[in-house]
Design a protein that fits this description.
With 361 residues, the chain is α/β, with parallel strands linked by helices. The chain has two domains: 139 residues, 2-Layer Sandwich (Nucleotidyltransferase, domain 5); 178 residues, Nucleotidyltransferase, domain 5. The protein is 38% helix and 19% strand. A six-stranded mixed beta sheet has the order 9-8-7-6-10-11, sandwiched between helices. The chain has a five-stranded mixed beta sheet with strand order 3-2-1-4-5, sandwiched between helices. The longest helix is centred in the last third of the chain and has 27 residues. The structure holds 5'-O-[(R)-(carboxyoxy)(hydroxy)phosphoryl]adenosine and zinc ion. The site of 5'-O-[(R)-(carboxyoxy)(hydroxy)phosphoryl]adenosine (KG4) has 19 residues, from helix 5 and helix 6.
Amino acid sequence: MNSSASRLLLAIESSCDETAAAVVREDRTVLASIIASQHELHIDWGGVVPEIASRAHVRRILPVIAAALRQADCTTSQLAAVAVTTEPGLVGSLLVGLTAAKTIALTLNIPLVTVNHVEAHIYACSMGHSNPIYPSIGFVVSGGHTNLYDCRSPADCRLIGGTTDDAAGEAFDKVARILGLPYPGGPSIQQAATAGNPNRFRMPRPLLHSGRLDFSFSGLKTAVLYAARGVPGPNQLTTTPPELVPDLAAAFQAAAIEVMVEKCRQAVRQLKYSRLCVGGGVAANGPFRHALQTMCRHEHIELFIAPPELCTDNAAMAAIAWELLAAGRTASLDADVLPGLVRPDFRRPRKSPPTDSPASH
Ligand code: KG4
Ligand code: ZN
């Protein structure tokens, strides 16, 4: 499957509830990508339970790595480096991947590269494209993030906007629970919405014209709850009537998409960029991808969205480690995890676009 001369990277991802490993060639060809989803372990709770996630990672990490090496038809002697997600994410989950990666780096005497999960989600947009994706506005929209970034290069993405409460994927998951749909909520809502009328219920578009690159989804979630079951009081229903589910799913999805697409438009205009990269689990949503394409065509913005299988969590997107290796950014064996999202340099939004900024289209 690969020539013995090619340099291979083993990538490990365990930041949340997927245990994943991939083997990626230096030319970014993905030779193997294994993802062990934990959805069935969290389904009864309607969201990820950190303790359950960490324990499942411990059980699965070695079989997942072995399966990736098998799928790539390679041996450990062909590995040039090992990459692992160390930020942001659930602390216990991140530690499992990091411990495995350090052990491999030490025993094989190969470099360890630590990867930022958010930067990897954006980098995934470049995989399968030959056009450069930087500089650009990066939008990472997943279960844990709804963040806009000023992206100058693979590992230079600075936060310029984000959610003030729930992440978009979290809102999809919580609304699905209100509607009695299974976890993860995003695919369930997308499916239910296909049979729904998005205009039967009018949902709010929070912070749409706030003038800032911020988001809020908790009010939208509450609006769905009240439309589904009535306002709090003795007459509020405990479950949502099934006949309302398709229309409510469609109305929620349309409101969430309108806000996300509009904020992307505002970000690109504010920073005068001509490229938009969208990654993260919610970017797998079909109507959202379609709405982004329409907006970008209208605004003459070049749109990069990762293929759906690279939107949700995976290890292949840790191919960004090849860029870090080329820049000499290897990590030491006492590297630690950084569970929180905001790094100190992410707090400084740029006021003006870079002078070398983007080609106009
Ligand atoms: O990127 P991801 O796999 O994990 C995190 O880093 O959070 O994203 C998971 C999130 C979940 O909230 C899930 O409901 C959402 O992505 N998601 C979707 C779709 N597929 C996954 N949301 C909307 N539509 C989808 N088709
Ligand atoms: Zn993710």
